[in-house]
Design brief:
Shape: globular
Number of helices: 4
Largest sheet: 6 strands, parallel
Radius of gyration: 16 Å
Strand order of the largest sheet: 5-2-1-6-7-8
Low-confidence stretches: none
Order of helices and strands: EHEEEEHEHEHE
Structural class: alpha/beta
Mean pLDDT: 96
Amino acid sequence: MRPATDALIVIDVQNDFCPGGALAVTGGDEIVKGINALMGEFQAVVLTQDWHPANHLSFADNHPGAAPFSVTEMPYGPQVLWPAHCVQGTRGAEFHAGLRTGPAQMVIRKGFRPGIDSYSAFFENDKVTPTGLEGYLRSRGVTHVTLTGLATDFCVAYSALDAAGLGFGVTVRMDLCRAIDLDGSLALARSRMLAANVGLA
Protein backbone atom coordinates (compact mmCIF):
# COMPACT_ATOMS: atom_id res chain seq x y z
CA MET A 1 0.00 0.00 0.00
CA ARG A 2 1.31 3.42 -0.95
CA PRO A 3 1.42 6.25 1.58
CA ALA A 4 -1.72 8.33 2.19
CA THR A 5 0.03 11.26 0.49
CA ASP A 6 -0.31 9.48 -2.88
CA ALA A 7 -3.60 9.55 -4.81
CA LEU A 8 -4.73 7.70 -7.92
CA ILE A 9 -6.80 9.76 -10.35
CA VAL A 10 -8.65 7.80 -13.04
CA ILE A 11 -9.61 10.08 -15.92
CA ASP A 12 -12.84 9.62 -17.89
CA VAL A 13 -13.02 5.83 -18.36
CA GLN A 14 -16.52 6.19 -19.80
CA ASN A 15 -18.46 4.34 -22.47
CA ASP A 16 -18.29 7.13 -25.04
CA PHE A 17 -14.47 7.07 -24.92
CA CYS A 18 -14.30 3.28 -25.31
CA PRO A 19 -14.77 1.24 -28.51
CA GLY A 20 -18.32 1.66 -29.77
CA GLY A 21 -18.70 5.05 -28.09
CA ALA A 22 -19.38 8.44 -29.65
CA LEU A 23 -15.76 9.60 -29.25
CA ALA A 24 -14.02 6.24 -29.03
CA VAL A 25 -10.34 6.07 -28.19
CA THR A 26 -8.65 3.09 -29.84
CA GLY A 27 -8.02 0.46 -27.19
CA GLY A 28 -9.75 2.54 -24.53
CA ASP A 29 -11.18 -0.55 -22.88
CA GLU A 30 -7.80 -2.31 -22.73
CA ILE A 31 -6.68 -0.31 -19.70
CA VAL A 32 -9.61 -1.15 -17.41
CA LYS A 33 -8.16 -4.34 -15.93
CA GLY A 34 -4.83 -2.69 -15.14
CA ILE A 35 -6.49 0.34 -13.55
CA ASN A 36 -8.66 -1.92 -11.39
CA ALA A 37 -5.56 -3.73 -10.14
CA LEU A 38 -3.73 -0.47 -9.45
CA MET A 39 -6.57 0.87 -7.29
CA GLY A 40 -5.64 -1.60 -4.56
CA GLU A 41 -2.31 0.17 -4.01
CA PHE A 42 -3.82 3.56 -3.14
CA GLN A 43 -5.59 4.89 -0.05
CA ALA A 44 -7.01 7.81 -2.06
CA VAL A 45 -8.79 7.09 -5.36
CA VAL A 46 -10.62 9.69 -7.46
CA LEU A 47 -12.60 9.14 -10.66
CA THR A 48 -13.37 11.93 -13.11
CA GLN A 49 -16.41 11.92 -15.36
CA ASP A 50 -17.10 14.06 -18.41
CA TRP A 51 -20.66 15.30 -17.85
CA HIS A 52 -21.91 17.53 -20.64
CA PRO A 53 -25.35 19.05 -21.17
CA ALA A 54 -26.77 18.37 -24.66
CA ASN A 55 -26.36 22.06 -25.58
CA HIS A 56 -22.64 22.12 -24.78
CA LEU A 57 -20.75 24.54 -27.01
CA SER A 58 -17.86 22.10 -27.55
CA PHE A 59 -20.18 19.90 -29.63
CA ALA A 60 -19.96 20.37 -33.40
CA ASP A 61 -23.73 19.73 -33.58
CA ASN A 62 -24.30 23.01 -31.73
CA HIS A 63 -22.44 25.04 -34.39
CA PRO A 64 -24.45 24.88 -37.65
CA GLY A 65 -22.25 23.82 -40.55
CA ALA A 66 -19.24 22.98 -38.39
CA ALA A 67 -17.51 19.65 -38.93
CA PRO A 68 -16.50 17.43 -36.01
CA PHE A 69 -12.82 17.95 -35.05
CA SER A 70 -12.74 21.42 -36.60
CA VAL A 71 -11.56 24.25 -34.35
CA THR A 72 -13.43 27.37 -33.33
CA GLU A 73 -12.52 30.34 -31.15
CA MET A 74 -14.13 30.55 -27.74
CA PRO A 75 -13.68 33.38 -25.21
CA TYR A 76 -10.99 31.25 -23.50
CA GLY A 77 -9.14 30.35 -26.72
CA PRO A 78 -9.20 27.71 -29.49
CA GLN A 79 -11.71 24.90 -28.98
CA VAL A 80 -11.90 21.60 -30.86
CA LEU A 81 -15.52 20.87 -31.81
CA TRP A 82 -16.20 17.28 -30.80
CA PRO A 83 -18.92 14.83 -31.72
CA ALA A 84 -21.58 14.96 -28.99
CA HIS A 85 -20.35 12.73 -26.16
CA CYS A 86 -20.82 11.98 -22.47
CA VAL A 87 -24.19 13.72 -22.38
CA GLN A 88 -25.58 13.85 -18.86
CA GLY A 89 -27.71 10.85 -17.97
CA THR A 90 -26.91 8.83 -21.10
CA ARG A 91 -25.25 5.43 -21.33
CA GLY A 92 -22.29 7.06 -23.05
CA ALA A 93 -21.59 9.14 -19.96
CA GLU A 94 -21.57 6.11 -17.66
CA PHE A 95 -18.34 4.56 -16.49
CA HIS A 96 -17.18 1.50 -18.42
CA ALA A 97 -19.02 -1.48 -16.96
CA GLY A 98 -15.76 -3.23 -16.13
CA LEU A 99 -14.30 -0.34 -14.14
CA ARG A 100 -14.28 -0.77 -10.38
CA THR A 101 -16.01 2.29 -8.95
CA GLY A 102 -16.30 1.01 -5.38
CA PRO A 103 -12.74 1.97 -4.33
CA ALA A 104 -13.26 5.62 -5.35
CA GLN A 105 -13.94 8.06 -2.54
CA MET A 106 -14.62 10.98 -4.87
CA VAL A 107 -16.12 11.41 -8.34
CA ILE A 108 -15.38 14.74 -10.01
CA ARG A 109 -17.79 15.68 -12.79
CA LYS A 110 -16.49 18.20 -15.30
CA GLY A 111 -17.67 19.96 -18.44
CA PHE A 112 -21.17 20.57 -17.09
CA ARG A 113 -21.11 24.31 -17.84
CA PRO A 114 -22.59 24.72 -21.36
CA GLY A 115 -20.26 27.51 -22.45
CA ILE A 116 -16.88 26.07 -21.51
CA ASP A 117 -15.17 22.74 -22.04
CA SER A 118 -13.16 21.03 -19.32
CA TYR A 119 -10.33 18.66 -20.17
CA SER A 120 -8.43 18.90 -16.90
CA ALA A 121 -9.53 17.29 -13.64
CA PHE A 122 -8.47 20.50 -11.90
CA PHE A 123 -9.66 23.43 -14.04
CA GLU A 124 -12.10 24.23 -16.81
CA ASN A 125 -10.45 25.21 -20.11
CA ASP A 126 -10.37 28.86 -19.10
CA LYS A 127 -7.60 27.78 -16.69
CA VAL A 128 -9.20 29.63 -13.76
CA THR A 129 -12.53 27.94 -12.94
CA PRO A 130 -11.68 25.14 -10.48
CA THR A 131 -13.36 21.76 -10.29
CA GLY A 132 -12.73 21.44 -6.55
CA LEU A 133 -10.29 18.56 -6.90
CA GLU A 134 -7.28 20.52 -5.67
CA GLY A 135 -9.04 21.42 -2.42
CA TYR A 136 -10.15 17.83 -1.87
CA LEU A 137 -6.65 16.45 -2.36
CA ARG A 138 -5.04 19.07 -0.12
CA SER A 139 -7.57 18.45 2.63
CA ARG A 140 -6.54 14.79 2.55
CA GLY A 141 -2.84 15.65 2.69
CA VAL A 142 -2.09 14.40 -0.83
CA THR A 143 1.18 15.62 -2.34
CA HIS A 144 1.60 13.24 -5.29
CA VAL A 145 -0.88 12.05 -7.92
CA THR A 146 -0.72 9.14 -10.34
CA LEU A 147 -2.89 9.57 -13.44
CA THR A 148 -4.46 6.92 -15.68
CA GLY A 149 -7.32 6.96 -18.18
CA LEU A 150 -8.55 8.63 -21.35
CA ALA A 151 -7.32 10.26 -23.38
CA THR A 152 -3.56 10.62 -22.91
CA ASP A 153 -3.22 13.68 -25.11
CA PHE A 154 -6.22 15.62 -23.86
CA CYS A 155 -7.81 15.10 -20.44
CA VAL A 156 -4.91 13.13 -18.95
CA ALA A 157 -2.22 15.53 -20.17
CA TYR A 158 -4.18 18.65 -19.19
CA SER A 159 -4.75 17.17 -15.73
CA ALA A 160 -1.07 16.28 -15.36
CA LEU A 161 0.09 19.74 -16.39
CA ASP A 162 -2.34 21.45 -14.02
CA ALA A 163 -1.39 19.15 -11.15
CA ALA A 164 2.29 19.95 -11.73
CA GLY A 165 1.50 23.66 -11.92
CA LEU A 166 -0.28 23.42 -8.57
CA GLY A 167 2.79 21.88 -6.98
CA PHE A 168 1.82 18.22 -6.84
CA GLY A 169 4.27 15.53 -7.80
CA VAL A 170 2.84 13.83 -10.88
CA THR A 171 3.26 10.46 -12.56
CA VAL A 172 1.33 9.41 -15.68
CA ARG A 173 1.06 5.68 -16.21
CA MET A 174 1.32 5.73 -19.99
CA ASP A 175 0.58 1.99 -20.15
CA LEU A 176 -2.77 2.65 -18.48
CA CYS A 177 -3.78 5.47 -20.84
CA ARG A 178 -4.78 5.57 -24.50
CA ALA A 179 -4.61 8.53 -26.88
CA ILE A 180 -6.79 10.12 -29.56
CA ASP A 181 -3.64 11.42 -31.34
CA LEU A 182 -5.31 14.17 -33.35
CA ASP A 183 -2.77 15.76 -35.75
CA GLY A 184 0.24 14.89 -33.61
CA SER A 185 -1.43 15.72 -30.31
CA LEU A 186 0.15 12.75 -28.50
CA ALA A 187 3.74 13.76 -29.28
CA LEU A 188 2.96 17.35 -28.27
CA ALA A 189 1.36 16.21 -25.01
CA ARG A 190 4.38 14.01 -24.18
CA SER A 191 6.83 16.86 -24.75
CA ARG A 192 4.76 19.30 -22.70
CA MET A 193 4.47 16.85 -19.81
CA LEU A 194 8.20 16.09 -19.82
CA ALA A 195 8.98 19.81 -19.87
CA ALA A 196 6.78 20.22 -16.76
CA ASN A 197 8.69 17.45 -14.93
CA VAL A 198 5.77 15.05 -15.10
CA GLY A 199 7.00 11.49 -14.70
CA LEU A 200 5.96 9.21 -17.58
CA ALA A 201 5.94 5.60 -16.42
